[in-house]
Amino acid sequence: NAGVTQTPKFQVLKTGQSMTLQCAQDMNHNSMYWYRQDPGMGLRLIYYSASEGTTDKGEVPNGYNVSRLNKREFSLRLESAAPSQTSVYFCASSGGRGGSGELFFGEGSRLTVL
Amino acid sequence: TQLLEQSPQFLSIQEGENLTVYCNSSSVFSSLQWYRQEPGEGPVLLVTVVTGGEVKKLKRLTFQFGDARKDSSLHITAAQPGDTGLYLCAGGQGGKLIFGQGTELSVKP
Questions:
Q1: A63 touches chain B (CB under 8 A)
Q2: How many CB pairs under 8 A join A and B?
Q3: Closest in B92, B94, B99 to A43, CB measured
């Protein structure tokens, strides 16, 4: 029962370095999401993909890029990391439409940018 | 500015007390969900409400969706230490789910 799998779970970067967070789901869901979670801010949507081949910006897309590689995989890339991107990142998937379906989350990826 | 405002942000109560968490917005949502998150884990869905005025109960938890579908509340009766966690409301809008900033609940024995 893997559900949503994120890698890596922890990462430390220096300012300016790049990295990619990987996410895969095995529930045959159409929609996938990337959120970041900061203290007192809840979860903020970075990018989402309503279906394979489509991606859309969320609330805080600046400094990030995404790729919906196939139905299972949705990656998040930081091209030039900044300290403000220190956060916990969550990938989620949903079988529902229009934001009405249940989101299934991964365990999170904790990123520190020095 | 948060699209969904949750209050209170922090709540510390004794076991057996009742509490209510509010989730408010000026926007209309097609549905509203409540999630619970424990440290080191992703949020887990508690309930989805879709109809204005809808009330759903989950054991000691009662969820209500406002008539105008702009607000919701979560009421916990006789809180227990196992209820401790971060409670998040989330509204469905335009193909995505937007979250409130969360309510950190601590229930002391």
A1: no
A2: 77
A3: B99
Nearest to A103 by CA among A53, A31, A16: A31
Using the beta-carbon criterion (under 8 Å), do B92 and A45 form an inter-chain contact?
Answer: no
Residue identified by tokens 């204005």 is B52
Q: What is the pLDDT of residue A95?
A: 85
- How sure is the predictor about B3, in pLDDT bands with cuts at 50, 70 and 90? confident
CB contact under 8 A, A98 and B30: yes
* pLDDT above 80 (res A73): yes
Listed in sequence order, the residues at least 6 apart from B60 whose beta carbon sits closer than 8 Å to its beta carbon are B76, B77, B78, B79, B80, B83
pLDDT bucket at A101, cuts 50 / 70 / 90: confident
pLDDT at A102: 87
From B67's Cα to the closest Cα of chain A, the distance in A is 18
What residues pair up with A32 in beta bridges, in sequence order? A49, A93
Alpha carbon distance B21, B34 (integer Å): 11
